[in-house]
Amino acid sequence: MKDTRPNILFIMSDDHASHAMSCYGSRINRTPNLDRIAEGGMRFDNCFCTNSICTPSRAVILAGTYNHVNDVTTLASKMDNRLLTFPKLLRESGYQTAIVGKWHLGQGPEHEPTGFDFWRVLPGQGLYHNPEMIDAEGKHVFEGYVTDLITDMCLDWLRDRDKDRPFCLLCHHKAPHRHWEPDEKHAHMYDDADIPEPETFNDDYSNRASAAAAAKMRIERDMNDLDLKQPIPEGLTKAQEKSWKYQRYIKDYLRVVASIDDNVGRLLDYLDEEGIADNTLVIYTSDQGFFLGDHGWYDKRFMYEESLRMPFIVRFPEEVKSGTVNRDIVLNVDFAPLFLDLAGVEKPKELQGENFRPLLQGSTPEDWRKSMYYRYWMHKSHHNVYAHYGVRTLRYKLIYYYSDPLGQPGAVDEKHEPEWELFDLDKDPCELCSVHDDPAYADVVRELKDELHRLQAQVGDARYEKDVD
Ligand SMILES: [Ca+2]
Questions:
Q1: How many other C-beta atoms can be found within 10 angstroms of the C-beta atom of residue 439?
Q2: What is the dihedral of CA 345, 350, 353, 354, to 10 degrees?
Q3: What distances in angstroms separate CA 188 from CA 19, 182, 185, 255, 256, one per listed residue?
Q4: Which of 162, 216, 288, 339 could form a disulfide with 384 if both were Cys (CB 3.0 to 4.6 A apart)?
Q5: For the segment 246-295, what is each residue's pLDDT rounded down to a tens digit?
Q6: pLDDT band at 409 (very low <50, low <70, confident <90, very high)
Q7: Which candidate, 289, 465, 463, 327, places its Cα nearest to that of 391?
Q8: What are phi and psi of 383, to 5 degrees?
């Protein structure tokens, strides 16, 4: 008998910020195929990651637990593949499962993908051109462009599937991760255009804790030859050089995104041709956001909006009204509970996320979360970003730079004292001025500290020793 539970097509890219998607109002590019998903379904405007970095975010998604629980706190962490994950539970319940593309949770028998009928992944970050990939049979080099290849392999697997059983396919693109290498087809997009610079391009990092000024992810200073791929023209002023670097960076980023968009279109076309679009939940998301010249930066890691926010669009015609928008707080830790609910599998007690299927159906429960907990662990490691944790509500964001590696990779700086930041996102959506020390916000600070500590207790994470009431 045919098993008619919904199919799940989970497309995730790497470092694709929502402000480079036209369905999110991008000022800098068009993404017509991603827009097909949003127009045919729901766009989530407040989907956040709990730790804005590749490896940890992927572990959160698979396991449905926070990083202090799944023990994948940093880029150097490797996930123990005996962990309970949603693909394992779906497979046990009769789904066909596959992952193709980026994994980045470690290699070898203890870390390679488990819970999949088929898996083929890139080692580490993988290459854009002629990438090596690893599967159960071993390593092979594939000729071509990585985004096309991943999509081809997904389509091959879909064509060969058992049509009497539902599938869960994880199509996980490497793109648009640094160093943004476009394919030939898109190499000359934007050649004759100037991409607008973001509002905070010339941020001077004043009026905040010291962390923003200390970060080494400035377009004007920290980009290397692999990022720029061309010699810097001579005779430019400092400001002209910064603008030139931004154009070099953002055009390649958008070219790489354009290839993702084309390839998402191929997958959507296949669902239409097969007549299974109505009963397939299609998601497009990214493991976290990215700074697209915002604050003068590239990269991520900070709890600031551009990096914290994940794009999340979902189409599921049987259940989700087309062209709708949700503004509730949804987290990457919630994805696994959603998938389990769709498959009719009971959520195991150890999963920490919440099933947000009612939100998809247009009815938010009264007690849905009003705040979220974030933690970035890699103190002064990559890009000299300070370790921090914080809480975001619909209006405010409180960040605590505890500034201690706590045994994780990173440098100890005895002189560095912890610092706080508070942003009123209604009045300061670009997060340019911390109001933590403004007496008018004293009550807000107190409430948010309580909320932060309540969330830490709820998820079972430890408070830093100097963070006292
Ligand atoms: Ca990433």
A1: 8
A2: 50
A3: 22, 9, 8, 8, 11
A4: 216
A5: 999 999 999 999 999 999 999 999 999 999 999 999 999 999 999 999 99
A6: low
A7: 463
A8: 60, 15
The Å distance, Cα 304 to ligand 1 centre, comes to: 15
Task: Identify the pLDDT of residue 413.
Answer: 66
* ∠ Cα 302 18 145 (to 5°): 100
Measured CA to CA, the distance from residue 334 to residue 166 in angstroms comes to: 21
295: preceding bond cis by omega (within 30 degrees): no
Pairing of strands 7-13, 280-286: parallel
pLDDT, one tens digit per residue, over 1-49 is: 899 999 999 999 999 999 999 999 999 999 999 999 999 999 999 999 9
Give SS3 for 183: coil
Give distance in angstroms: CA of 270 to centre of ligand 1: 27
In the numeric block, which tokens belong to residue 405? 């590696």
The terminus-to-terminus CA distance of the chain in angstroms comes to 60
Peptide bond into 176 cis (omega under 30): yes
How far is the C-alpha of 452 from the C-alpha of 167, rounded, in Å? 38
Residue 436's H or E segment, with its range, is none
Number of other residues whose CB lies within 10 A of the CB of residue 240: 11
Cα-to-centroid distance, 57 and ligand 1 (Å):
8
User: For residue 282, what are the β-bridge partners?
Assistant: 9, 315
Cα 90 to Cα 284: distance, rounded to the nearest angstrom: 19
Q: How far is CA 253 from CA 23, 167, 195, in A?
A: 17, 31, 11
- For residue 123, the CA-to-ligand 1 centroid distance in Å is 15
Residue 401, CA distances (Å) to 17, 191, 364, 390 in order: 24, 41, 33, 9
- Tell me which residue of 87, 93, 117 sits closest to 10, measured CA to CA: 87
The secondary structure of residue 147, as a DSSP letter, is: H
Note the pLDDT of residue 411. 62
CA 275 to ligand 1 centroid distance, Å:
33
Contact in structure between 379 and 410 (CB atoms under 8 Å):
yes
What does the angle CA 274 – CA 280 – CA 282 come to, to the nearest 5 degrees? 110
What DSSP state is assigned to residue 356?
-
Element (H, E) at 95: none
Q: How far is the CA of 223 from the centre of ligand 1 (A)?
A: 18
pLDDT at residue 255, as a whole number: 98
Q: How many Å separate Cα 251 from the centre of its chain?
A: 20
Q: How far is the CA of 87 from the centre of ligand 1 (A)?
A: 20
CA 52 to centroid of ligand 1, rounded, Å: 8
CA of 234 to the centre of ligand 1 (A): 33
DSSP code, position 169: E
State in Å: Cα 164 to ligand 1 middle.
Answer: 35
